[in-house]
Amino acid sequence: MQFSEILGHEHIKNHLILSASKGRIPHAQLFIGPEGCGTLPMAIAYAQYIVCQNTGNENCGENEACNIKFENLAHPDLHFVYPTVTTEDVKSKPKSIDFIQDWRQFISENPYGELSDWYKVLGVNNKQGEIRVDDAQEILKSLSLKSLEGSYKIMIIWMADKMNIAASNKLLKLLEEPTDKTVFILISENEEDIIQTIRSRCQVLHFNGLPENVITEALVSREKVEEKLAFKIAHQSQGNYNKALHILKEDNDELPFEKWFVDWVRAAFRAKGNAAAIQDLIAWSDQIASLGREAQKKFLNYCIDMFRQALLLNYQADKLVYMEPTVDKFKLEKFAPFVNGNNISEIFKELSDATYHIERNGNAKIILTDLSIKLTRLIHKK
Predict the structure, then answer these.
(1) pLDDT above 90 covers what percent of the chain?
(2) E runs forming strands in the chain
(3) pTM of the entire structure?
(4) C-alpha distances in angstroms, 193 versus 29, 130, 204, 318?
(5) pLDDT for the residue numbered 272
(6) Which position among 138, 187, 311, 349 has the lowest Cβ density within 10 Å, counted as fewest Cβ atoms?
């Protein structure tokens, strides 16, 4: 993967190229950045630069065969670990290597793809993706082999915050006693979810969301989008190039989060002093509880974004508002006055707590019903 294919982050590209050129390559690095900012393609481009011993500011050098292998994500010295689940084909103890063909196709089609996109490939249903101790054993096995090119071996761990405790402890031992010419690149969106002992052994690089002008230029040059539309999409994507592509393609397989949110808050408004409306909230909770846990968590995060947007609109920060609801007769401007400084902290807390409990396999019907009843009280708070 060429550095020139990666959007933005010029200072990080220059830092990685300069450090590799001088032979100052940390054995463990942690790339932290939000969805769709390009941490994974950056890690792959960096790995290619190191392993193929490229020079200059681009991934091209005398070792053409090495670069070709990397373009196909099939170099023997490039290893990946990522969250997996059991499937029809892999019924127990799933490991990353079991899904390597799907993974290569996933990256080739959209290197900016996010976790929910990968879960669609796996078909997670009501399961939650995880990096298990079996993956850590596979890491140990892979890194014990000699390097094909006589250079570095690179282990990219995507969504490292999804490692369970057993895998984290196993990886920690590898980071404490790394084999010669081995580089770990951990990638995560949530730095705090990675155990401190692992973080302390990594050099951390922080990525920001992509600027609107970078996304706009990419949509115009790569997707042939008219500039005015590209700018509007870039504003709505909030630094997430993958989200920009989804907006552009108007993906029909996206869940109707907006409709569910509107149905929820409307039922919460009706429920004040109206016991019959509680049944609507219970029915809504049952509907959302029927989804897979990953979809439930994603929806609750969407709700947090909607409340945040309403708060910004209420406090007249119009330029920061990017959501444009399309549900009939629902206007963010009319909803905004009900989201204010007196209730927003509690709303965020309840949504975050619900996400936490669902992630830990709590009963989704009970969690969501409790959340709905609390929202009825909070949304009427002056």
Answers:
(1) 50
(2) 28-32, 78-81, 153-158, 182-188, 203-206
(3) 0.83
(4) 16, 13, 14, 32
(5) 76
(6) 349
